[in-house]
Design a protein that fits this description.
Layout lengths: L1 H12 L16 H15 L4 E10 L5 E12 L2 E6 L2 E5 L3 E6 L4 E6 L9 H4 L3 H5 E11 L2 E10 L6 E9 L4 E9 L4 E10 L20 E4 L3
Parallel strand pairs: 6-12
Antiparallel strand pairs: 1-2, 1-11, 2-3, 3-4, 4-5, 5-6, 7-8, 8-9, 9-10, 10-11
Length: 222
């Protein structure tokens, strides 16, 4: 689920960060910054995000391990991720992680001090501090002309060593993302549909146990 969260949040939130150079650790590519700034402007104009995506996983030998379809809802600090068998709700204060196979939901408080991949971190300078980025050039996917931006984590203890963002230069939106793990696993996420002006009610981001009969609650807030 951690990898799913990373991919989903990157696809709509990553470029909303203020990308600046950090000369103490290396120099970022100004051409990449220009593209990311354009995407940033687009993302910041969104009223509420509703996106449909496909996530595929391949192993070190390039063999497809599985494909899942899912949906992401995002409004301010609130988000909801729904994917086969799993759901995550966050109202900005609490997070509910639901596992359909066990019919169990784990509840936890949002802790801003913890360095995890969450929307509230993506709307700060979190990735600006943790990544170096450069523009590799143009590529074509599904007939779209895309800019490929390569990101390298500064923290070498991360489980992944590269993230590639593919940005549609015509619309200034993210089209796909590829994350390369040190063990050879590759996660590829493709956005099938994106609506940045969705009207989302706050109840969308709160777990309603009445809709999950017999659910077992594990409350970690106490």
């Amino acid at each position: 689920m951690k990898h799913i969260i990373i991919a989903c949040l990157c696809m709509v939130s990553f470029a909303s960060v203020s990308f600046s150079q950090n000369n103490s650790i290396g120099k970022n590519d100004p051409d990449a910054k220009k593209i990311l700034d354009q995407v940033s402007t687009k993302v910041k104009s969104y009223k509420g995000v509703e996106a449909a995506f496909t996530l595929s996983v391949t192993d070190a030998k390039g063999k497809l391990q599985g494909t899942k379809k899912g949906n992401l809802y995002l409004k301010g600090m609130q988000y909801r991720i729904s994917i086969t068998g799993q759901e995550i709700f966050c109202d900005g204060k609490n997070t509910w992680t639901y596992d359909k196979s066990t019919n169990e939901v784990t509840i936890a408080k949002v802790d801003p001090s913890v360095k995890t991949i969450t929307p509230e971190k993506f709307f700060t300078n979190f990735y600006d501090k943790d990544f170096l980025y450069k523009l590799n050039g143009n590529v074509t996917q599904a007939g779209k002309n895309l800019a490929e931006i390569e990101l390298t984590p500064i923290d070498k203890t991360k489980t992944f060593y590269k993230v590639y963002l593919y940005i549609d230069k015509k619309t200034n939106t993210m089209y796909s993302l590829k994350s390369l793990e040190k063990n050879g696993t590759k996660y590829t996420l493709t956005i099938n549909k994106l609506n940045g002006n969705s009207s989302l009610n706050d109840t969308t981001f709160v777990f309603d146990k009445s809709k999950y009969p017999g659910v077992d609650e594990v409350d970690l807030r106490n």
